[in-house]
Amino acid sequence: MTITTMRPFPRLHRLPATLPVEGAVRIKLEEGAPIFRASATVQARIEALLLKQRTSRLSVEEEDELDRYEEIDDYLSFLNRVVRNLLQSHSQPGA
After folding, report:
1. Which end of the chain, C or N, has fewer beta carbons within 10 A?
2. Which of these, 12, 73, 63, 13, lies nearest to 42 by C-alpha position?
3. Residue 68 domain flag
4. C-alpha pair distances (Å), 86 with each of 12, 37, 83, 90
5. What residue spans of 1-95 are helical by DSSP H?
């Protein structure tokens, strides 16, 4: 029997103002597991902020926005790990 310990579920305190209400996250099926990723629109915005960060200076608002996107990325990564771990634990013999 496999015992899975759960880490505390992360909390998001706020979302970026530029996060689209519709179509912010896409779901992709990988090995039977739903994987949650940022949409192409959100990824393009993050890439634009990162490019600007490398070539010049971000405003305080842009830095805050990039920080919020990083929190969302961490949240989605956590969610993807939980889903994969649950599927793996249920697919093992005796689970």
Report:
1. N
2. 73
3. yes
4. 22, 18, 5, 6
5. 40-55, 60-91
* Over residues 30-41, mean pLDDT: 91
Given its phi and psi angles, is residue 37 left (phi above 0), alpha (psi -120 to 50 degrees) or beta? Answer: beta
- Identify the sign of the CA torsion 47, 48, 52, 57: negative
User: The pTM is what?
Assistant: 0.77
pLDDT in tens, 52-65: 999 999 999 999 99
The verdict on residue 27 lying in a domain is no
Domain count, the chain: 1
